[in-house]
Specification:
By secondary structure, the chain is an alpha+beta fold. The protein is about 40% helix and about 20% strand.
């Protein structure tokens, strides 16, 4: 979706909840992002799970949060269904 809609103002970012101190895990994260050609912003959280669980109100991945142009959280999707999410994004572009 990033490649398809970036010209329309769509922005994507990924967040890894893997242990950033584990070099082998971080190598796998980087390899996955390279394989998927994830050229958008990719972050690694270095907080304990209870911190992000409390702030984001979910137990863990995978999930997708969708925000509108004003930065308001509009949708949380779990399990991840990219076809449903893309339709929702298209609707947000119409507003």
């Amino acid at each position: 979706m990033h490649k398809k809609y970036a010209k329309d103002g769509f922005a994507a970012l990924s967040v890894s909840l893997d242990d950033p101190t584990d070099k082998s895990v971080m190598e796998r994260v980087r390899a996955f992002l390279a394989k998927e050609k994830a050229t958008f912003t990719n972050l690694v959280l270095d907080e304990e799970p209870q911190v992000w669980q409390e702030k984001l109100k979910f137990d863990g991945p995978p999930c997708v949060f969708v925000f509108n142009r004003e930065g308001k959280w509009r949708k949380y999707e779990a399990p991840v269904d990219y076809a449903v999410i893309e339709k929702y994004v298209q609707e947000l572009f119409k507003k």
